């Protein structure tokens, strides 16, 4: 646990630095409301673990990890506006606190700071740009081309959640100066984990206690969001089984990585198993 906490501390410290440098002060405070309100920091952790597993130093991936976290947070601000969700991470969502206009500006501000962090490496810029295209297509599909079967849902999950997970792992491998095959293997691992994460998230929305989850539940059904339990005939148990299959595929992709066993690899394996059993 100390191993992961040390890496999370690197992320939190750098994230605070990035947010505090934003001007004007009012915008910095609005970014802080979302970016510093907690969160699991899953994506930056994946970036650092992938970097270490590929033979690099975790500190080399901190900026990329913080950048992908800011992209994720920016997308959450927009999600909450679309969903009219007034709670995020146990506190008021950005639009509920500041109004729509300022929330959108805060989202833009986070994206700007993120790309500043990626700008040191053209490969990182390309990876993130591709992931944001996928994310945008996923968001659009959710609104105007709602999935109606399992296959379409899986493609949505790949774009909406898997794409940023893939970017996080690929950024970590890039920070370690890994070869293209290794970068791709880490990317596939993370994409599969992201899909499993989204499936489990859908199940929790349908079955979890809102206090335990830190946000309202039943939102998917209430607003017609295409969750796995809404667009298929799968029960919660069957959906969890599907998530487990994605987790197994993630582990298979990780096995393609030509790297010695390490604590980082062990944690990546553990994470692929954790995402399908988590309770919040």
Quick structural overview:
With 280 residues, the chain is mostly helical. The chain is built from 14 helices and 2 strands, in the order H-H-H-H-E-E-H-H-H-H-H-H-H-H-H-H. It has one domain: Farnesyl Diphosphate Synthase (Orthogonal Bundle), CATH 1.10.600.10.
What would the principal axes of the Cα set say about the shape?
globular
> And the CATH topology?
Farnesyl Diphosphate Synthase
Number of strands: 2
Q: How many domains in all?
A: 1
Q: So how many helices? A: 14
Q: What's the SSE blueprint?
A:
Layout lengths: L1 H19 L4 H11 L6 H12 L8 H22 L3 E2 L2 E2 L1 H5 L1 H19 L3 H23 L5 H26 L4 H28 L2 H4 L5 H5 L4 H4 L4 H19 L8 H12 L6
Helix pairs in contact: 1-2, 1-4, 2-6, 3-4, 3-8, 3-14, 4-6, 4-8, 7-8, 8-9, 9-13, 13-14
Structure description:
75% of the residues lie in helices and 1% in strands. By secondary structure, the protein is mainly alpha-helical. Helix 1 packs antiparallel against helix 2 and helix 9 packs antiparallel against helix 13. The longest helix has 28 residues. It has one domain: Farnesyl Diphosphate Synthase. Belongs to the FPP/GGPP synthase family. One of its GO terms (molecular function) is metal ion binding.
Index terms:
mainly alpha; Farnesyl Diphosphate Synthase; 280 residues
């Amino acid at each position: 646990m100390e191993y992961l906490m040390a890496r999370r501390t690197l992320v939190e410290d750098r994230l605070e630095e990035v947010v505090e440098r934003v001007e004007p002060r009012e915008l910095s405070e609005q970014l802080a409301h979302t970016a510093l309100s907690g969160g699991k920091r899953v994506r930056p952790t994946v970036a650092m673990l992938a970097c270490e597993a590929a033979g690099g130093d975790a500190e080399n991936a901190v900026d990329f990890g913080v950048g992908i976290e800011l992209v994720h947070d920016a997308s959450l601000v927009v999600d909450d506006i679309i969903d009219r969700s007034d709670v995020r991470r146990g506190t008021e969502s950005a639009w509920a606190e500041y109004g729509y206009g300022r929330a959108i500006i805060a989202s833009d501000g986070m994206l700007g700071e993120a790309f500043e962090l990626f700008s040191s490496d053209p490969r990182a810029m390309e990876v993130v740009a591709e992931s944001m295209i996928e994310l945008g297509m996923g968001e659009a599909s959710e609104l105007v081309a709602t999935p109606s079967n399992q296959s379409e849902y899986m493609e949505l999950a790949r774009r909406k959640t898997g794409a940023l997970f893939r970017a996080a792992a690929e950024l970590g491998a890039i920070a370690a100066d890994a070869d293209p095959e290794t970068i791709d293997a880490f990317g596939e691992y993370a994409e599969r984990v992201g899909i499993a994460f989204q499936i489990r998230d859908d199940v929790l929305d349908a079955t979890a206690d809102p206090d335990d989850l830190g946000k309202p539940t039943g939102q998917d059904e209430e607003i017609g969001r295409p969750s796995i339990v809404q667009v298929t005939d799968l029960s919660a148990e069957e959906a969890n089984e599907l998530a487990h299959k994605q987790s197994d595929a993630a582990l298979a992709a990780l096995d393609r990585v030509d790297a010695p066993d390490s604590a980082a690899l062990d944690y990546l394996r553990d994470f692929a198993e954790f995402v399908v059993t988590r309770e919040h």
